Amino acid sequence: MTDHTPPPESLRLRRGTRLLVVKFPGRDAWELPFEYLRVFSPSAEVRGHGGTQDGLPKILVIGKENVDITRVEPVGNYAVRLVFDDGHDSGIYTWKVLRELGENFEDYWRRYLERLERAGVARQPREQS
């Protein structure tokens, strides 16, 4: 099955606020925190070799409150690779994945925070840039 998600009109890094701003045609722009993109990486390292469980990655990634994106690399005409300053660079963010992460941000983030709480993990304060 071929994915027909159109490419975004724009992708902008806002380093000061650690946000990737993604604008798809005919939609408002989504401001996706770098931390969110890192903990929801589509890589097998994060999602496991079976994808997700109810939209959440199988692997609970912690300690990424201050992660930065150092590069955004195009992958063909269907995706980008986000290179993070913690060395993670194996996630290929297809247009479909970016759209899903934008559309579901509030729900996914809330469930991620609940999962951290159940695991007894506290998020660290973000450093000011």
Question: Key terms for this structure?
Answer:
three-stranded antiparallel β-sheet, 129 residues, 4 helices, NE0471 N-terminal domain-like, alpha+beta, single chain
What does this structure look like?
The chain is of the alpha+beta class. It has a single domain (10-117), classed as NE0471 N-terminal domain-like (2-Layer Sandwich). The chain is 26% helix and 26% strand. The strands form three sheets. Strands 1-2-3 form a three-stranded antiparallel beta sheet. Strands 6-7-8 form a three-stranded antiparallel beta sheet. Strand 4 and strand 5 form a beta hairpin. It is globular, with a radius of gyration of 14 Å. The protein starts with 9 loop residues before the first strand and ends in an 11-residue tail after the last helix.
In short:
By secondary structure, the protein is of the alpha+beta class. 26% of the residues lie in helices and 26% in strands.
Largest sheet: 3 strands, antiparallel
CATH fold field value: NE0471 N-terminal domain-like
Based on the structure given, which CATH architecture is correct?
2-Layer Sandwich
Give the uncertain stretches in residue-range form: none
Number of domains: 1
Helix and strand sequence: EEEHHEEEEEHH
Strand order of the largest sheet: 1-2-3
Task: Count the DSSP helices.
Answer: 4
As a percent range, the share of helical residues equals 25-40%
Indicate the radius of gyration in whole angstroms: 14 Å
Overall strand count: 8
Q: What would the principal axes of the Cα set say about the shape? A: globular
Distance between the termini: 43 Å
Alpha-beta content class: alpha+beta
Kindly report the average pLDDT value.
Answer: 89
Highest CATH level, the class: Alpha Beta
How much of the polypeptide forms β-strand, as a percent range? 25-35%
